[in-house]
Amino acid sequence: MSEASLPAAPVTPTAGGPGALPGAPTGVKANADATAATVSWTPPRAAGDTPLIGYRITRSDGRVTTVTGRDVLVAQPRAKGMLRVIGNLRPSTAYTFSLAAVTATGTGPSAEVSVTTPSR
């Protein structure tokens, strides 16, 4: 039986180095009606080492919405504005949305925006 290996040191990718993660999305805004919010943003200025494959929107209530597909791919060559409608919200409730870009390397830092849904 061989000896156990030593544990590896944790690796955290940093901007500009090998394995760089994407930057945070910019210009994040939210507009709400009683039961839905539209979150809009511009792709990050730096995509890291690999192309963007999606975005992760985390709501303050813990639910996560993933944005993937054609729209993500089309937005990469230029700073095209993007948006996603988040439904199933409660009227007169404050929400914070954390939005992060995702690549094959990993998930970058998030940008946050808060909004309160109006009463019906």
Report on this model:
The chain is mainly β and 120 residues long. The chain has a single domain, classed as Immunoglobulin-like, CATH 2.60.40. It is built from one helix and seven strands, in the order ββββαβββ. The strands form two sheets. The chain has a four-stranded antiparallel β-sheet, with no helix packed on it. The relative contact order is 0.29. The model has no long low-confidence stretch (mean pLDDT 84).
End-to-end distance: 68 Å
Give the beta-strand count: 7
The helix-strand sequence is EEEEHEEE
Largest sheet: 4 strands, antiparallel
Q: What is the CATH topology descriptor?
A: Immunoglobulin-like
Uncertain stretches of 5 or more adjacent residues: none
The CATH homology group name: Immunoglobulins
Which band does the percent of strand residues land in? Answer: 35-45%
The CATH architecture classification is: Sandwich
Q: Please, how many domains? A: 1
Radius of gyration: 17 Å
Shape: elongated
A few lines on this structure:
It contains 1 helix and 7 strands.
Question: What brief labels describe this structure?
Answer:
single chain; mainly beta; Immunoglobulin-like; four-stranded antiparallel β-sheet
List the helices and strands and how they pair.
Elements: E1 26-32, E2 37-42, E3 52-59, E4 64-67, H1 70-75, E5 82-86, E6 94-103, E7 107-116
Antiparallel strand pairs: 1-2, 2-5, 3-4, 3-6, 6-7
